[in-house]
Design goal:
This protein is an alpha/beta fold. Helices cover 34% and strands 24% of the residues. The chain is built from 22 helices and 32 strands. The strands form five sheets. Strands 31-30-29-28-24-27-26-25-32 form a nine-stranded mixed beta sheet. Helix 5 packs across helix 12 (314-326) and helix 18 runs antiparallel to helix 22 (688-705). The chain is elongated, with a radius of gyration of 30 Å.
Length: 716
Amino acid sequence: MQKNALRAAAVGNEDVPMPQCTDGSVLIANRHSLISAGTEMTAVGSTKKDMVKKALGDPDIRQSVVDMLVQDGVSKTSDRVQYEMTKWTPLGYSGAGIAIEVGANIDGIRVGDRVAYAGQGHAEIIRAAKNLCVPVPDNVTTQEAAFVALGSIAMQAVRRADVQVGDVVAVLGLGLVGQLVSQLLQAAGARVIGTDVMDERLELAQKLGAEICFDARGDVVKNFNSYTDGLGVDCVMICASSGNRAVIEQAVKIARERGRVVAVGQCSLDVPRNEFYMKELDLVISRSYGPGRYDPSYEEHGVDYPIGFVRWTERRNMAEFLRLIASKKVDVKALITHEFALDDAQQGYELLMDRPSECLAVLLRYPDEEPDLRAGSIEIAQPDRVKVVDRTVPNIAVIGCGSFAKQFHLPNLKRSSKANLHTLAASSGQSAKEMGQRFGAQYATTDLDELFANPDIDAVMIFTRDKQHAELSARALRAGKHVFCEKPLATDDDDIEMLREAGAGSDRLCMTGFNRRFAPMLVQAKEVLDRCHGPKIIHFRVNAGGLPKSSWVFDPNHSAGRIVGEACHFVDLFRWLIGAEAVSVSAHSLGSPTAANLLDDVTATLDFADGSLATLIYTAQGSPSIGKERLEAFCDGTAITMDDYRTLSVRGASRIDLKHRAPNKGHDVELEHFFDAISGTATPQITLRDGLQSARLCLAILESARHSAREVNTGQ
């Protein structure tokens, strides 16, 4: 599948795996998509600058590079900088095509229907979420429907303007969005006065119904005052993109008292306060397509807003815009100046960059042939390096390539001589191919069925968000693959039971990513504790720091929260250091009762079968200046302290004082051990049972914390 993307100083097409349809989405064979002369050209124009000069001129970038050098060293920093300078930027967000596959939870769309979409880039195949696609009316072409996202942006701006019939409205900037705003204002009964610096756009706006237009290079304020008999306009729509304050100052001068100024384009909001105050103006921001934008529950999970509470959502705006085209209230055909085949997309961008006065709406056209729905995988060319595949070591498939995987696991896998990275899978074909190229994969895919059925793949490494871990691990075990899964392995009792059943029918290893077991300082602490006699007392403090509540970690669709998702590390650590099973748990949470997935301030005490006690403090309340993790352990006259994997101190039967400049949490050794274990050269240190026991104990912590520290028997 071809997808349009931006690299440093160049726009081109990439062959990427096609997306897979989900229950809440529609697969669309694209027919036309619209290049946004504003958003996209800003991105393209930015890459035209010398990347090194741009970086050197930005103090934030300079400081981040220095920080990376100190923390990660020259090699990792060089790799990251090279990636940042060559990574892809997807382009586009508006188009229309034919539905070729429809998810089970989609209403009103069938295979073969014409569908308009928003929020997805220029590509032959689009996966559009339920609330970001709408059917195209019979008398609307795919060329016209391709305007749907830009039209929704314009419509939301008009709704924010709250215009009444007969209001006089100024539209500053008659580019693509400005022309659409002008027409929608007229449809709402307003009188439109436009301004722009291009004569062609002034003429077009008047041809499409604007009452009068003024050259923005002239005396705009004088012209407006004269035309309105000195009253000023009821509303000013700023559709021009400008970094200086001249546009907002102009808007203030032409607005009447108690008028409204609506910022639609990317303009300076350095408001002249005194003038605003004296006229008592309202300043309104219009955000994208309408209510629902940037809300994951609406856009990703298809949760609609009740129409009685939110009349116009982004999807309803999209549908209404197409209705206005169908009823001839809005004319977008007059805005189309050029159309290019997808293979010639570079010409379209060059035209918009170099000769903007000659074009307005530029469309990309896609082939009409039936797409191959099996094209979920592609082979990746690795021109910069030749790696001989060694079939004496296991072939690994990686599912997911988020920030943690990119920072630790994928670089470690790339450096390892004990495994081959055979396939990299992601929900986005672009991410799968880009990360596959970066980390040396042979194949990129979006098709997990094909991945699990591939006999050449020996093991699967799972780096997705938490709620997917158990299902993917169970599928891999049933398919006869070894599994390395980032923690947590399970997020609820159903996950635990599913994995228990999958493991019972498999002779493959399922290892959870409890890397702390491989951290050198904790390995040494374990050796000291193993020489001690009698029960142990262990205290572990996790100064986790706060996260915004908008983080996916608190989204119940993706995660069971920080206790299940991260505290499992330290519960497993207790089991490993003590060498016994916990028999009961008692926990307290800070403050008023909180939903389980939102808890991030908890103390928990675990009683172990051998009489040992372990206490965990997990908090988001602290300061990062004291470090994140601290261990204290006591047994048989011995005391151990470990601070943030930088210092280790032992007193008692032995004396140890260690200091490391950089923390080592064992991620690299953990992966090497997994490869050795599945190759038969090492006994697995972490098994399926360890992952499930840790999950059970974390669920017990949540149960106790939410029931006033009631002791929970773990059944061990």
